[in-house]
Amino acid sequence: MFTGIIEAVGKIANMEAKGGDMRLRIQTGKLDLSDVKLGDSIAVNGVCLTVINLPGDGFWADVSLETLNHTSFKQLKTGSQVNLEKALTPSTRLGGHLVSGHVDGLGEMVSREEDARSIRFKVKAPDELARYISHKGSICVDGISLTVNAVSGAIFDLNIVPHTVLETTVGQWQPGVKVNLEVDVIARYLERLLLGDKAADPKYDSSQEGNITMGFLAENGFLK
């Protein structure tokens, strides 16, 4: 698990094709690796990767074909900057929100505009994720825990303060850029919980989980 508070900006140093997937070497910059060992998890642009080698100035990790197909990793190239966060510990301050490092989908930057010293972005989420995004709720974008300032359909607004711009890859975001999105895990579990016994029905189509209606809630005892 992670918090979405970025600890360092790293750089893709090497990319090696490996039997259809990819092996990456990531230079970690100011990230403290003194407590990192083989097998540990580090979030890279919000994607949880496993450390398989520690050459000293960073780490190597394997990236599966599944990850390449469903994240912005397919846009990376040698020299690309990436947001880095080590996995949390029991004593870590939870400054952001609980983040699993499992990307739910790709968003697209729709607009960018200056707002005093901050930057405002509009981001288009996949339609199937829109139900999990709420006004003043949390969302993880390229590994960064952010607050949703407004929502209109599948488009949501972000207000990024100067510190976050300086300490992450936010400054590189421009309209058209694809970003990794992870919705609030609590929203996902709550939706599944509301299904009750229907969740165990093998005939149930999980793609319909977003079709919970007031009638469904009343029928299953959630409304009086």
From TrEMBL:
Keyword Transferase: yes
Domain Lumazine-binding: 1-97, 98-194
Keywords: Repeat, Riboflavin biosynthesis, Transferase
GO biological process, one term: riboflavin biosynthetic process
Pfam families: Lum_binding (PF00677)
Highest taxon of the lineage: Bacteria
InterPro entries assigned: ATP_synth_asu-like_sf (IPR023366), Lumazine-bd (IPR001783), Lumazine-bd_dom (IPR026017), Riboflavin_synthase-like_b-brl (IPR017938)
GO molecular function, one term: riboflavin synthase activity
Catalytic activity: 2 6,7-dimethyl-8-(1-D-ribityl)lumazine + H(+) = 5-amino-6-(D-ribitylamino)uracil + riboflavin
Known pathway: Cofactor biosynthesis; riboflavin biosynthesis; riboflavin from 2-hydroxy-3-oxobutyl phosphate and 5-amino-6-(D-ribitylamino)uracil: step 2/2
PANTHER family: RIBOFLAVIN SYNTHASE (PTHR21098:SF12), RIBOFLAVIN SYNTHASE ALPHA CHAIN (PTHR21098)
Function: Catalyzes the dismutation of two molecules of 6,7-dimethyl-8-ribityllumazine, resulting in the formation of riboflavin and 5-amino-6-(D-ribitylamino)uracil.
Subunit structure: Homotrimer.
NCBIfam families, sorted: PRK09289.1, PRK13020.1, ribE
Name listed for the protein in its UniProt record: Riboflavin synthase
